[in-house]
Design goal:
Blueprint: H1 2-18, H2 26-161, H3 164-181
Length: about 180
């Protein structure tokens, strides 16, 4: 009803102007108004339920979309809060991991240094033993060579100074000492 009164209020000035200043033609205006009211009533009767249903459905969809968006906003806020908490916790964990890694690296460096010192000591001892063994080996070789050389020189000297007769006498004495020993 408010819509009809509003519509009439809007159309009255246009009717007055259309008459060319002679005043409104109320009969024509009345027929047009009655025709318009009948049109509105027919539209309301024919499509009123559909329009109300469409408006109600639209309102329901809007309400549903608002509820969904509110729910999604709450979920997003919850996820944001959860991620923020996890992020702050992760920062603490990263710092703890860095501290632990630094301590582990320091322990590893100490262990490597200790192992290196032990390896150096072991290598030095092995080198000392190798040097001692090689020195002893060289001394034995020199002694053997000296003995061989001394025997050779003694042999040559004996050959040069001993006669055949002296050699026979020495050989008989040696053989005699062997017989006595048996």
């Amino acid at each position: 009803m408010k819509a009809i009164v509003f519509f009439i209020g809007l159309t009255l000035p246009s009717v007055a102007m259309a008459s060319g200043g002679h005043g409104p033609e109320w009969v024509k205006y009345g027929f047009h108004t009655a025709n318009l009211i009948i049109l509105f009533l027919v539209i309301k009767l024919a499509a009123g339920k559909m329009i109300k249903g469409a408006v109600a459905n639209r309102a329901q969809r809007i309400k549903m979309h608002l509820e969904e968006s509110n729910q999604m906003r709450k979920e997003a806020q919850h996820n944001f809060d959860e991620l923020s908490a996890r992020l702050s916790h992760m920062e603490k964990e990263v710092e703890e991991l860095r501290t632990e890694a630094a301590a582990s690296a320091e322990r590893e460096a100490e262990l490597i240094a200790t192992q290196t010192d032990a390896d150096v000591k072991r290598i030095e001892e092995a080198a000392g033993l190798t040097i001692q063994n090689e020195t002893d080996k060289a001394r034995r070789a020199l002694r053997k060579e000296a003995v061989d050389l001394a025997v050779k020189i003694a042999e040559e000297k004996l050959k040069a100074e001993l006669s055949d007769k002296d050699q026979k006498t020495l050989a008989q004495d040696f053989l005699g000492s062997l017989k006595e020993a048996n």
